[in-house]
Design brief:
heterodimer, A: alpha/beta, Pyruvate-ferredoxin Oxidoreductase, domain 3, 4 domains, eight-stranded mixed beta sheet, seven-stranded mixed beta sheet, about 20% strand, globular, B: Rossmann fold, 8 strands
Chain lengths: ~575, ~290
């Protein structure tokens, strides 16, 4: 029986559900399991209801499940909200002092969380570590690994020892009374070194690996942790991280830094991106590379600030007035976030264009396991910066010189005596303001010419399942995990279906897409928005007929069950 | 050593109206750069949109003509990426004090080492004569037929934001203006240079003659001390029969760039790209 263990830790904001969940997730990852964990929280600092969901498997997992095997309830509300979703053998753990009526109603396994913390660790506040230990005790989890993770988490030695004692107390208590280890076989898990990281961390690491030297960004959920991560490492990595007055300043600073010659980025969400769009055109017009991370959340306006949506796709593809080339990437998981962010910097500099990396709340703040990134595979393409030799031979440098590829040789200010002149007005090859029709036509054509090369550099969609099938489920970006799982389950049920998933969404590799999705098959697109944006893009770029869409726009991510239920309703 | 001369800065033929105050500013800027012996390839001018925004095209240097109101953040980004560049941002009163007002205030607060020249003609000229944030109170234009609301005071605002260098020049006194530009560029930190610029086409009130009758030089005031903030505030609100020009406020304070460890040694643009360097961070995630 394949391993699929689903744990939820719920409580008020500030109670520590996130810490408990994170330590559990990290311990499973360190054992070698595949782990996926997501956070559901409200836009508040204290109170309300937050929960942290973990899924542990022996094969790839990147989707949530609606069923719970183990619930850790830190308050009464967690019991009433989550107990109804306990599976067949599901159990809930709560403190010994829980209302006996509830204990009877839900068959709760009680653990003296606070009392054990006080008794064994001398501090009631370490009840959360007792809870961690209790879960692991039930599972007979390797206690050495658990202690190691707790040690790494609470680095300060004074509290480390007591937290380990508290966890040990919970572990022993639950192991003696509530042993469930026979239901979840962890003994056959291979000890492979895996990283556990969220989408934001993977994007930040990707940017740093790509040599991003400048980040200007205004805090906005869900992308703020990227700023904090890069700021924490700024001094060691010779990177400038600046929090300016607004998102308009952020993107202009990044463009200015890129003009001077460094790899530059800004990160934001849909609201901040809305403020940036005029500058997106400035990047396009002045042919200054810039990378923008757009962490989507449920819009419009403030929408649901701590919740997820894939509602900004067509906006990103079309944002800003006028016409100019751009690329849009949408990573499907943390590992993808790392590599696609590196590619974003390469494409931005090679084609001297803006490149948008679209994450969303689900991808940005969920934790994924990934095999350790092989940094020898990081490829840096800075495009065509002129060497000092080449610069020396130039009698006159023209920043926007017309070439067969549309890409102009790029020089940097102070690299030589050549002057780097560019303009947001339509300009000549030399970068000076013009108004005549002939130059205008040539310069538009020159910029648009770059799309041809760019399109060739875009990877075709990934196919999962058989290459040809009667039905193709199509998706893009962060919904990959749920779609992949749904496809697998439907195949088990006998359906001839595959998954065609896009992570490099614009410019859409139209020919490869038509080759993969053409012919006599049904195409169903599943996406986290209300209007089927990718379905429309797919249709307009390829002419392929879309048989139907599975849409979800409640601010919550897909589950495989949701997709299966909707899809079955549409199938002939 | 390179000796820079005026010819090095000769650019395109300006498309400004004959008699425009911008000509005086252009001459003063070139003169200042030659006096400071800054070669064109070490200089970046970032401009916004408006008649002032066209200035770098009429010179010869590294140029980034950006969007309306956005010269300052582009200039800041360029400067942080390469601190060896001399960076000047240029725009009009609408560009800097209206559309880009937020950037201007925060650039002064953070104290980036750039010079900001505002060609202040108290009017929107490129769009043919609408009220600007510095238009006189009650000024009648096509968009303000019942009179413009009270004007902004850029100097007082800059002093309140603790700008490192606050000065006012007059396009009709090129030598004096050139001197101010030299001091603005040389001052470490954010330097605001507000320049009274007659608009011969759309502003028939604040003319060369109007200004010439009123302006007087602060450096000729024996007791004036630009390091004295209270004195500076008092001078900044003087506007009427007498209008002060010269350095209004000057202060030494830490430049933003100097507070960042990443910028202590060599410019960012000269730092190598080392993908392997993140290896040590990856272990934190295992």
């Amino acid at each position: 029986m394949a391993l699929d263990l689903r744990i939820v830790v719920g409580g008020e904001a500030g109670q520590g559900a996130q810490t408990i969940g994170f330590i559990l997730a990290k311990a499973f990852a360190r054992l070698g399991c595949h782990v996926f964990a997501d956070q559901d929280y409200e836009s508040r600092i204290r109170g309300g209801h937050n929960f942290f969901r973990i899924r542990v498997r022996d094969s790839h997992v990147s989707a949530v499940s609606e069923v719970i095997d183990i619930l850790v309830a830190l308050n009464r509300e967690s019991l009433s909200l989550h107990c109804p979703r306990l599976g067949e053998n599901g159990v809930a753990i709560a403190d010994m002092n829980t209302d006996p009526e509830l204990v009877r109603q839900y068959g709760i396994l009680t653990v003296p969380l606070s009392d054990l913390a006080a008794e064994k660790a001398g501090n009631k506040l370490m009840a959360n570590s007792v809870a961690i230990g209790s879960v692991m005790g039930m599972l007979g989890f390797n206690s050495e690994i658990l202690s190691g993770v707790i040690k790494d988490h609470f680095q300060s030695s004074a509290i480390v020892e007591n937290n380990i004692k508290a966890a040990r107390a919970g572990y022993d208590y639950a192991r003696q009374r509530y042993d469930r280890s026979s239901s979840y076989d962890l003994s056959s898990i291979m000890r492979i070194e895996r990283m556990l990281l969220n989408g934001n961390e993977s994007v930040a690491l990707g940017a740093m690996a790509a040599g991003c030297k400048f980040l200007a960004a205004y805090p906005m959920t869900p992308s703020t942790p990227i700023i904090e991560f890069m700021a924490a490492n700024a001094a060691d990595f010779a990177t400038v991280v600046i929090q300016p007055e607004d998102e308009i300043a952020a993107i202009h600073m990044a463009i200015g830094a890129a003009y001077s010659g460094v790899r530059a980025m800004t990160v934001t969400s849909g609201g901040g991106f809305s403020l940036m769009v005029e500058a997106l055109g400035l990047s396009g017009m002045t042919e200054t590379p810039v990378v923008i991370v757009e962490g989507q959340r449920a819009g419009p306006a403030i929408g649901l600030p701590t919740r997820t949506e894939q509602g900004d796709l067509l906006f990103a593809v079309n944002a800003s007035h006028g016409e100019f080339p751009r690329a849009v990437f949408a990573p499907s998981c943390a590992e993808d976030g790392f590599w696609l962010t590196i590619k974003a910097f390469n494409m931005a500099e090679k084609y001297q264009i803006p490149v948008i990396v679209m994450t969303d709340h689900h991808l940005a703040s969920s934790y994924f396991t990934a095999e350790k990134f092989d940094l020898s595979g990081v490829y840096i393409d800075r495009g065509l910066p002129l060497s000092e030799d080449e610069m020396g031979k130039l009698s006159e440098y023209k920043r926007h010189r017309i070439t067969p590829s549309g890409i102009s040789p790029r020089a940097l200010p102070m690299q030589s005596h050549a002057l780097v002149v560019t303009d947001s007005d339509e300009h000549s090859e030399a970068g000076h303001i013009i108004e005549d029709a002939e130059t205008r036509t040539r310069m538009v054509a020159k910029r648009m010419k770059k799309l041809e090369g760019l399109r060739r550099d875009m990877a075709p969609p990934h196919v999962f399942g058989p290459k040809t099938a009667d039905i193709s489920l199509v998706g893009w970006g962060s919904s990959f995990g749920a779609l992949h799982e749904a496809m697998g389950l439907l195949r088990q049920q006998g359906l001839n279906i595959n998954l065609v998933h896009f992570t490099e969404v614009w410019p859409l590799p139209a020919q490869e897409t038509t080759d993969l999705l053409g012919g006599d098959r049904k195409i169903y697109v599943a996406e986290n928005n209300a209007t089927g944006q990718f379905a429309r893009l797919l249709n307009s770029e390829t002419g392929l007929k879309i048989s139907g869409t599975v849409l979800k726009y409640d601010g919550r991510p897909f589950t495989s069950q949701y997709i299966i239920d909707r899809l079955k309703g549409m199938l002939p | 050593m390179t000796v820079v001369n005026l010819q090095d800065y000769a650019g395109m033929q300006p498309a400004w109206c004959p008699g425009c105050g911008n000509f005086g500013i252009l001459s003063a800027l070139k003169k200042a750069l030659v006096d400071l012996n800054i070669p064109p390839y070490n200089l970046l001018i970032v401009s916004g949109i408006g008649q002032a925004g066209k200035l770098p095209h009429y010179m010869k240097c590294n140029t980034f003509n950006s969007l309306h109101g956005r010269a300052i953040p582009v200039a800041i980004g360029a400067k942080m990426a390469n601190q060896e560049l001399t960076v000047i941002a240029v725009g009009g009163d609408g560009d800097g004090y209206a559309e880009g007002g937020n950037h201007w205030i925060h650039a002064m607060r953070r104290n980036h080492d750039i010079t900001y020249m505002v060609h202040n003609n108290q009017i929107y000229a490129l769009t043919k004569g609408q009220a600007s944030p510095t238009s006189d109170t009650g000024f009648i234009t096509g968009t303000t037929p019942e009179g413009s609301p009270p004007q902004i005071n850029p100097l007082a605002l800059a002093i309140a934001a603790d700008a490192a260098f606050v000065a006012r020049g007059f396009a009709g006194d090129v030598d004096h203006l050139a001197g101010l530009i030299k001091q603005a560029i040389s001052h470490k930190g954010f330097a605001l240079l507000d320049i009274l610029q007659p608009c011969v086409s759309f502003n028939h009130i604040n003319t060369y003659e109007w200004y010439s009758k009123r302006v007087y030089k602060l450096e000729e005031e024996k007791k004036y001390n630009p390091a004295d903030k209270t004195m500076a505030f008092n001078k900044s609100i003087e506007w009427g029969d007498r209008i002060p020009i010269g350095i209004v406020y000057s202060k030494e304070r830490p430049v933003f760039e100097s507070t960042l460890k990443a910028l202590r040694n060599i410019p960012l643009v000269k730092q190598p790209l080392e993908p392997g360097k993140i290896q040590k961070l990856l272990t934190d995630f295992s």
